[in-house]
């Protein structure tokens, strides 16, 4: 997750990716490789699908309030 | 105990002086106009002192957070909902989750009593009550693997108190959704520009959802950029529509908007999350954070002067047109979220504790985020106080009081003791390209006028109408998201409750149950919305206090749970840090409920109001502002419902407080008998800073770790890295 460009640009990019949770997939892959090295890793498409569908079953995740 | 360096002492003395100067000017100025800069100084100075001293004291002396204890995020890390998240990212997440329409709307309405009472409560309230509640709930939930407030109430207080808390939360959710929807209806009614722009958010969100699902999964920032560009285009295009032949299509009456909103609420809540909710959430979060940052910059750059009186006569008399009742207790009820919000306890005990890296970070995340929210409330109060008070009252008094022409409004405002000519009223509406600004109650339009004044001084006078509709869009967007998400949460609670009666309801994907409970929840808040729009006495005037009472009662539940936990975990000596705010909040809120139920002033007491209108009906008379017998019956029904609701909520919360007291007393008599469901200690392996910036000691610690184990990069950009930056 280094990327190119000046330091401030990398910092902004890192923050935006984390804040929007765009980095969730990278996190999942790292996690899957570390803990279950033999299991197949989901494709990004499948992972993102699963992630939004999880919110369906428990809407309290990611709830915003007044 | 380490002694402070002379430099530290100097810095904090200066901070204290800045805050004190702000407070003195605000409190002592009479007659002359005061710059908003003093309000900003009072707020920031007080926040800094509170964060540095009071919050630190609570964290280390009362809660005794443990840097070596692993948090749920570290222990249960699954890369999905439990994962240690960088503190700066989590601060953003937590703030985006707690900030909403509440802190923007409440202070605007409370400005009818002048800017001073509101400022005092927003700042003092957040320091001693709101931020403390958020932080303490976050702490206890972190020690319990991220248990929700309801679960903690059940486990620590008992099934009875827990059930009362659950029912109270559900009722509060319904009222919240009804009132928020009412705020949008009042902002969009008869406004083709606003209605068109908001309607466009639906196709934009659907497109974004399709993009994320099918075209490029997971590319959130690029799709947000596209969406925001389209959104700005929709705001600009709203003006073209308003000036074209299409204008009539988008000029909707309040009653028509109610039907659209209820239909929208139902459909949106049964559609898959990825289609509408998730993409619109990205849009509204971006707009929310972006506008708040812009507003802060705008206030600091333009430093407008406050035109509202510090304290108006309505504060003592209690006959204000925006909401009835005197300063105590109604200013506290009305400001609600900006100073103390029960809803935050639901966030502090849900998502955030599963992501926090270190217990020591709760000061920054819990207390810090709430200070930021309070500063948003201060900015809303500034925006409401810089517009002409005459215009403020013409916009916020119900139509029944000021009539529907600029002439009658001008006369009514003169009766309140302020002056604005009919021409000035017409000009104000024209400058933001609205047909009329009279009785645009609910706070959102007033805030939008204030925001457009601040932004247009920065960008040059010409863009006023654009900024007005930009501000309306910003509020309406996240209220719509809240309607959708809130309906889902309400449905979830209802499914859970009904599951006790009929098993299949428990299964959240059982279609008939899903449709039925969604319809029930939308129907319930739709009822309050309908009532609010058709209320002859003014929907906001009648319903907003019920919403405020509901929110503050939820805070009482959260503070009661916190106090019980402090007592049960052997912190009796320090239990006052939540017990005092609880006592204050309970006094304010129960007094307000009492007055709403029993007051003999018909403007305040729902049942007195009911009796007067019922007597008139029996005598065959029509009382103003009602215009017909139908209106009279509407008033009677509504006052009955509102009165019963105010009484019911107060009773539920009394049950929770009584049950919590019982548990505390039992614990003090026999400490061995009470059970504390805290997760046992596990040693933490993470080294991360506590605050936004890493201290020297923290940097050294990380540097040492980095040289010791260079081959194993832990998660998070700055854990065990020398620079503390990504």
TrEMBL record, chain A:
Pfam families for the chain: Sel_put
Domain of life of the native organism: Bacteria
Name of the protein described by the UniProt record: Selenoprotein
Organism, scientific name: Streptomyces boluensis
Automatic annotation (TrEMBL), chain B:
Record keywords, A-Z: Cell membrane, Membrane, Transmembrane, Transmembrane helix, Transport
GO-annotated cellular components: plasma membrane
Main subcellular location: membrane
One GO BP: cellular response to starvation
Annotated compartments: Cell membrane
Nucleotidyltransferase keyword on record: no
Membrane disposition: Multi-pass membrane protein
Residue ranges of domain CstA N-terminal in the record: 36-592
Transmembrane stretches, start-end: 37-54, 95-115, 121-140, 160-185, 191-211, 223-242, 257-277, 289-306, 326-347, 367-387, 465-483, 513-531, 543-567, 574-594, 644-665
Domain of life: Bacteria
Region ranges (Disordered): 703-726
Family of this protein: Belongs to the peptide transporter carbon starvation (CstA) (TC 2.A.114) family.
Cited PANTHER family: INNER MEMBRANE PEPTIDE TRANSPORTER (PTHR30252), PYRUVATE_PROTON SYMPORTER BTST (PTHR30252:SF3)
This protein's name: Carbon starvation protein A
């Amino acid at each position: 997750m280094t990327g190119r460009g000046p330091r401030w640009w990398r910092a902004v990019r890192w923050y935006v990716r984390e804040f929007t949770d765009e980095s969730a997939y990278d996190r999942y892959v790292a996690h899957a490789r570390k803990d279950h090295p033999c299991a197949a890793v989901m494709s990004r498409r499948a992972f993102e699908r699963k992630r939004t569908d999880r919110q369906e079953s428990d809407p309290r995740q990611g709830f915003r309030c007044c | 105990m380490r002694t402070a360096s002379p430099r530290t002492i100097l810095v904090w003395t200066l901070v204290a002086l800045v805050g004190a100067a702000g407070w003195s000017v605000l409190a002592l100025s009479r007659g002359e106009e005061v710059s908003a800069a003093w309000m900003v100084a009072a707020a920031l100075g007080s926040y800094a002192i509170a964060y540095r001293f009071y919050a630190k004291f609570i964290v280390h002396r009362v809660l005794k957070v443990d840097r070596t204890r692993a948090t749920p995020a570290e222990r249960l890390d699954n890369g999905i909902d439990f994962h240690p998240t960088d503190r700066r990212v989590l601060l953003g997440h937590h703030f985006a989750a707690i900030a909403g329409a509440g802190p923007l709307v409440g202070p605007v309405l409370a400005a009818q009593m002048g800017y001073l009472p509101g400022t005092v409560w927003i700042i003092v309230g957040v320091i001693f009550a709101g931020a403390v509640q958020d932080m303490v709930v976050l702490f206890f939930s972190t020690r319990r693997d991220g248990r929700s407030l309801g679960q903690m109430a059940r486990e620590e207080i008992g099934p009875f108190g827990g059930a009362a808390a659950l029912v109270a939360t559900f009722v509060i959710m319904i009222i919240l959704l009804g009132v928020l929807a009412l705020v949008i209806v009042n902002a969009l009614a008869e406004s083709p520009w606003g209605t068109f722009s908001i309607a466009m958010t639906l196709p934009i969100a659907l497109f974004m959802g399709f993009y994320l699902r099918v075209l490029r999964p997971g590319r959130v920032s690029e799709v947000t950029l596209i969406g925001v560009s389209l959104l700005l285009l929709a705001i600009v295009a709203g003006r073209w529509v308003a000036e074209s032949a299409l204008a009539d299509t988008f000029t909707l009456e309040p009653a028509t908007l109610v039907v659209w909103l209820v239909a929208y609420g139902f459909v949106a809540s049964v559609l898959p999350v990825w289609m509408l909710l998730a993409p619109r959430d990205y849009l509204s979060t971006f707009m929310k954070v972006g506008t708040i940052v812009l507003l802060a910059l705008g206030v600091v750059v333009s430093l407008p002067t406050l035109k509202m009186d510090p304290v108006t006569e309505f504060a003592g008399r209690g006959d204000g047109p925006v909401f009835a009742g005197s300063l105590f207790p109604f200013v506290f009820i009305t400001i609600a979220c900006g100073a103390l919000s029960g809803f935050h306890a639901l966030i502090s005990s849900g998502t955030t504790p599963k992501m926090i890296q270190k217990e020591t970070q709760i000061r920054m995340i819990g207390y810090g985020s709430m200070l930021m929210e309070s500063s948003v409330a201060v900015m809303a109060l500034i925006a409401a106080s810089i517009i002409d008070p005459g215009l403020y009252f013409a916009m916020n008094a119900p139509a029944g009081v000021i009539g529907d022409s600029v002439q009658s409004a001008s006369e009514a405002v003169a009766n309140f003791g302020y002056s604005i000519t009919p021409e000035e009223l017409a000009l104000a509406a024209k400058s933001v390209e609205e047909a009329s600004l009279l009785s645009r109650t609910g706070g959102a339009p007033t805030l939008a006028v204030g925001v457009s004044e601040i932004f247009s001084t920065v960008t040059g006078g010409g863009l006023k109408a654009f900024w007005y509709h930009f501000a309306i869009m910003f509020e309406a967007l996240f209220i719509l998201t809240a309607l959708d998400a809130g309906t889902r949460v309400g449905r979830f609670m209802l499914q859970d409750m009904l599951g006790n009666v009929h098993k299949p309801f428990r299964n959240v994907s059982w279609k008939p149950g899903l449709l039925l409970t969604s319809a029930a929840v939308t129907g319930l808040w739709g009822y309050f919305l309908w009532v609010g729009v058709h209320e002859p006495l003014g929907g906001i005037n009648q319903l907003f206090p019920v919403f405020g009472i509901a929110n503050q009662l939820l805070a009482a539940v959260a503070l009661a749970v916190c106090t019980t936990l402090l007592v049960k975990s052997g912190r009796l000596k320090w239990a006052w840090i939540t017990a005092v705010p609880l006592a204050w909040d309970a006094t304010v809120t129960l007094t307000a409920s009492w007055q709403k139920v029993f007051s003999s002033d018909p403007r305040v007491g729902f049942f007195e109001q009911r009796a007067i209108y019922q007597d008139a009906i029996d005598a065959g008379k029509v009382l103003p502002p009602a215009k017909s017998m139908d209106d009279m019956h509407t008033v009677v029904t509504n006052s009955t419902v509102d009165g019963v609701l105010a009484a019911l909520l107060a009773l539920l919360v009394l049950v929770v407080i009584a049950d919590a007291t019982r548990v505390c007393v039992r614990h003090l008599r026999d400490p061995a008998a009470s059970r504390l469901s805290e997760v046992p200690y596990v040693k933490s392996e993470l080294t991360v800073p506590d605050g936004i910036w890493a201290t020297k000691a923290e940097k050294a610690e990380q540097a040492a770790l980095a040289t010791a184990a260079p081959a194993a990069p832990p998660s998070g950009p700055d854990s065990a890295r020398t620079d503390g930056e990504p």
